[in-house]
Amino acid sequence: MAKIPDKTETIENVESPVFDPSKATEQVRAVVDQGVEQSKQAFSKLSSDAETTQKALESTLEMAKTTGNEVSLKMIAALRDNAEAGFTHLEALVAAKSLSECIELQTAFLRKQIEKSAEQARSLQAAMMRASEDMSKPIKDIFEKALKERKAA
């Protein structure tokens, strides 16, 4: 029986907790094992995400190369058409017999070139838009997948 100083009550059969080292070791081991397992899962997810991102970037770069080539070929074709039209027009101007015929040829040529340039610009714009959509699709898909997984978690 223990007596509390300056109190009239006594405490009987008070037991203090006993430190059991074997239980402490088991608890520490369980916590460490759980931490290791969580680390393995996190590393596995990180590795998987990195691999997915790498594939998306490779796909994007391949698409950029393909669409870049397509746009370059369209530009070269437009330049070739414009050069051929210019030489044809020059031949027609040289063959003209009067000033009025030269002015008429020049006016028709300019009108045709403006229409052709507008058509070429629309074609290049469409190719560029398609290229940007194609190049951004893999990254966009991965981003959306990551958002879905984050919302699910």
From TrEMBL:
<dbReference type="InterPro" id="IPR018968">
    <property type="entry name" value="Phasin"/>
</dbReference>
<dbReference type="InterPro" id="IPR010234">
    <property type="entry name" value="Phasin_subfam-2"/>
</dbReference>
<dbReference type="Pfam" id="PF09361">
    <property type="entry name" value="Phasin_2"/>
</dbReference>
<feature type="compositionally biased region" description="Basic and acidic residues">
    <location>
        <begin position="1"/>
        <end position="10"/>
    </location>
</feature>
<feature type="region of interest" description="Disordered">
    <location>
        <begin position="1"/>
        <end position="22"/>
    </location>
</feature>
<protein>
    <submittedName>
        <fullName>Phasin</fullName>
    </submittedName>
</protein>
<feature type="domain" description="Phasin">
    <location>
        <begin position="62"/>
        <end position="141"/>
    </location>
</feature>
